[in-house]
Amino acid sequence: MKTLILTTVLVGCAMALAGCGSTPSAAPSIAAGASSVEAARSAGAPELDAIVLNEARNKLEKARALATAGDDRAATRMAEQADVDAQLARAKAGSERSRLAVAELETGLQTLRDELNRAAAKQAPRPMP
Known about the structure:
The longest helix has 52 residues, at 72-123. The mean pLDDT is 84. By secondary structure, the protein is mostly helical. Helices cover 87% and strands 0% of the residues. Helix 4 (50-69) runs antiparallel to helix 5 (72-123). It is built from 5 helices and no strands. The protein has helices at 2-21, 27-42, 45-48, 50-69, 72-123.
C-alpha cells in the first residue's frame, strides 16, 4: 500500500514538473502581432513607413512558420518582435502625419503673412510731395 501511494505521489510530481516546463502556445502572441500589423496598416504605415511595417510582416510570417514547425518559444519571441515593429511603424506613421500637417499649416501661415504684408504695403500712407 505504501508503495502504491509513493508511486502515485511521484507520478503526480513528475506530471506537475512536466507541466511547469512546457512552453505556452505561440497563438496569443501571433494574434497580437497580427492585430498590431493590421492597426499599423490602417494608420497609414504602408505609405508613411513601409520599411518597418514590412519587417513586422516578415517577422509575423516567420513566427507562423516556427509555430507550424512546433517551435513555440521561438515563434512567440518572433511574434513579439513583429508586434513591437508594427507598433513602431504605427507610431512613426502618426508622427509623419503630424509632421506633414504642421508643414501644411506653416505653409498656410506664410501665405497669410505674405498677403497681409501686400495689403499693408498698399494701404501705407504715401508721403506728400
